[in-house]
Structure formats: structure tokens, C-alpha cells
Amino acid sequence: MRSARVPVLMYHYLSVPPPDADKYRLDLSVTPANFDAQMEYLAVEGYTPITVALLAEHLLYGAPLPPKPIVLTFDDGYIDNYQYAFPILKKYKFVATFNVITDFIDGKRPGYMNWNQLEEMAIEGMEIGSHTLSHPDLYRKPRAVQVKELAESKATIEARIGTPVTTFCFPAGKYDATTLSVLRDVGYTAALTEIQGTRQSTENLLELRRIRVRGSYSVADYGYWIKYFLSNGK
User: What are the Cα distances from residue 168, in Å, to 71, 121, 149?
Assistant: First the structure.
């Protein structure tokens, strides 16, 4: 059993929100300029971004972590993640984990990445994880539904990208005991929640804690909340 203090940051949109954006879109949108400033902050402060998969390997097997590890995660698979986040990450030689909704990609839904883009990102060292087939609320869904959503999305990404998929992200942070059981059965080793905190452990690998990055954050806010959650015991 191992534990580690590792901030796992949660991003969604990486773009300037549209003029008609509601409060939810505003909260979930980090502008490219702000994201670049945040990555510069991490570089200056000596943080080293790692993937969720590497964090899991540390907690399971003791794989070494770099000094001041931090994990950058992106939910949903929006096209702006490829257009803006990906180039900025490469600029700083950082990696991140992108959790995608496979039916949206297969259906070529506007506003989402495609398989060629995801394959390019994987080649550059980004981790591609699952965010289910169709982004349902998994809480209290029948086991068969959960197996389909978790297993088929994993298999689809592996077939298209050619790399193992071991990381999962709960849609809207909703799940139950059945979800955790299915995750183990179909071969995931780590899963991301919306529970705030930085204390990660072997026993909670399927319930990793994260820090939400809000669109309103200045760089000072960003640094404050990372340090706050690293020091507050959660």
C-alpha cells in the first residue's frame, strides 16, 4: 500500500468562451493565454507533469516519480484541447491525460477531436483515457449498461490509438459500487473523480482526487489552490 501527495488538475474547455456562454461554460473554460501562463507557473515552480498511468504505476508498483509531480487531465475530448492545449503542452515539454467520449468521436460530433488528432497526441506522449461511450450518469445504471459503456469505450480507443487504456474518468463524477466493480473487471487501473484533494493512495486508485481549474482563476489563484490542497490533509 502506498500513498502520495500529487495534485491532479481537472480541465475541460481550453478556449475563449462564446459570447452567449452560460455560467457553466464560463466556469469550465480556461483561455489559451491563461493556460500558457499556468504552464509557465508550473515550469518556474519546478513541477513535473506526469500521466495518470504513471501515477498508478507508482501507487501499484513503486515506479519512481519525478520531483514535484503533478497531473494535468482534460475531460470530454473537445477540439480546442488539440488546437490550443496540445501545442502549449509541447512548448513546455509537458504531458497530460485526455479522457474522451468515444461515440462522440465516432459520430464526428462538431466541437470534438477526431481519431487522427488523438493518435498524433498519443505519439507525442499524451495519455488517452476513457470517458465512456456516450457520457451517461452511471449511478445506479444496470451492470450490463455499465459494462458496455466502460468496456467498449476502452476497446475502441485501444483499437484506434494502439496503446493500452488503463485510465477512466467518471462522467459528471457520478458512479456507484457497481461502477467500481466493472472498472476492475474490464481492466482499468485508475479512475478520476471530482472529489477535491491531492492525497492519492493504492486503495483509492479507482477514486483519485482532483482539483478543478476554474475559468475565473488568475495565475495567483491557480498557485494558491494547488498549494492549499497540497497542505490541507485531503
Answer: 14, 18, 11
Structural domain boundaries of the chain?
3-129+192-231
CA distance 170 to 225: 23
Domain 3-129+192-231 CATH assignment equals 3.90.320.10: no
CB 48 within 8 A of CB 66: yes
pLDDT, tens digit, for every residue of 142-160?
Answer: 999 999 999 999 999 999 9
> Could you give the CA distance from residue 194 to residue 64 in angstroms, rounded to a whole number?
26
Residue 99's SS3 state is strand
Mean pLDDT of 118-146: 98
For 176-232, write each residue's pLDDT tens digit: 999 999 999 999 999 999 999 999 999 999 999 999 999 999 999 999 999 999 998
Residue (of 99, 102, 107) closest to 12 by Cα position: 99
In eight-state DSSP terms, residue 46 is T
444496470: which residue's cell?
A: 142
Amino acid of residue 228:
Y
